[in-house]
Specification:
The chain contains eleven helices and twelve strands. It has a domain of about 250 residues: 3-Layer(aba) Sandwich (Aspartate Aminotransferase, domain 2), CATH 3.40.640. A seven-stranded mixed β-sheet has the order 1-7-6-5-4-2-3, with helices on both faces. A three-stranded antiparallel β-sheet has the order 10-12-11, with helices on one face. Helices cover about 40% and strands about 15% of the residues. By secondary structure, the chain is α/β, with parallel strands linked by helices. It is globular, with a radius of gyration of 22 Å. The chain binds pyridoxal-5'-phosphate. Pyridoxal-5'-phosphate binds next to helix 3.
Length: about 375
Amino acid sequence: MEKELIADSTSEILNDMLEKIRLTSAMTMGYPVSRGFDYSELLPFLQYPLNNVGDPFIPSTYTVGSRELEKEVVAFFSKLFRAEEDNWWGYVTNGGSEGNLYGLYLARELYPKAIVYYSEATHYSVQKNLHLLNMPNIAIRSQDSGEIDYADLEKTISINRQVPVIIMANIGTTMTEARDDVAKMKAIFKGLAIQHHYIHADGALSGSYAAFIEPRPAFDFADGADSIAISGHKFLGSPIPCGLVIAKKSHRDRIARSIDYIGSLDTTISGSRNGHTPLFLWYMIRKLGVEGLMKKTRACLDVAEYATTALKRIEPLTWRNPNTLTINIPKPEVALVKKWQLASEHNWAHIICMPGMQKAQIDAFVKDLKQSKIRSAHLTD
Ligand SMILES: *Cc1c(COP(=O)(O)O)cnc(C)c1O
């Protein structure tokens, strides 16, 4: 009897929570998460303790995992990011922050005396990573768009010419989705005759679709990046946060250490690694391929265009960086920010048109915003 009661309340709690998630998920507009994915074919894998412990490319003595598919995911994005043949490596991370930490870690092992440069629009996790790694660093001004100020970057590097340069480039800043230009950074190195340099591309937000944007932003290995991190749960879509880091294999070889206990190389930040998230990423690229991802990108850009036009009609200050999914508006009243889970900073807020964002949702938001503006106009009359 008592057991039954417990069973009942367990399913009740879960049902309540599921309903709450269903409702709040339908409202979220400001945070970069894809919705509407269907991974039900992968459900049977939840019965097993998958663990990709160690390096994905070196088999471990623990074999319950998804290494084979993880390698395919790394290979797919290495090719997409135009890595040099036979000089790429990577693994599925727990998210963008871990990928960025990894890039900085590799860079520091190569150039222990370097200074790290990053724009003031850089994601908050980077400061923490620099602190963890104890790396000297300098913040560079951003332009209004959120893109790094190249003149300030050049000037600052030129003052410290004797020291190797590490740059954290943003491929889509968190607030305005601005993309720093890796080719322009390379040109600065050339102009100042900087020989020791490393560029890590933080593509957590838009790295996963940057290759499908026209004109193609300068962000990948062919443009001069040494490592690139992307998120898996943002544009690609995953029920569990995850990401991917890709680096030149020659860089990773410098830090590889063989560990007898796991029978693999200790090249990753965490020891035990999620074996399910590589499955989600593999499944998504398998279903979509380059063609499908390109289509998905175009569809999202269309929705972003639609939202921009609709928002501009009621809020003339609305703006968007070219070819991005992020639309910036002056921060509306708190009730709206909460209701629609808008991301905001200082006086600005944004919505972001990730896969799964419906035009109907945008219409409802625009209507809300319009009413809110009418109300506040009355108040100031
Ligand atoms: C989301 C994001 C990150 C962090 O990624 P997590 O997956 O949350 O760890 C880093 N940089 C940028 C630009 C981001 O948008």
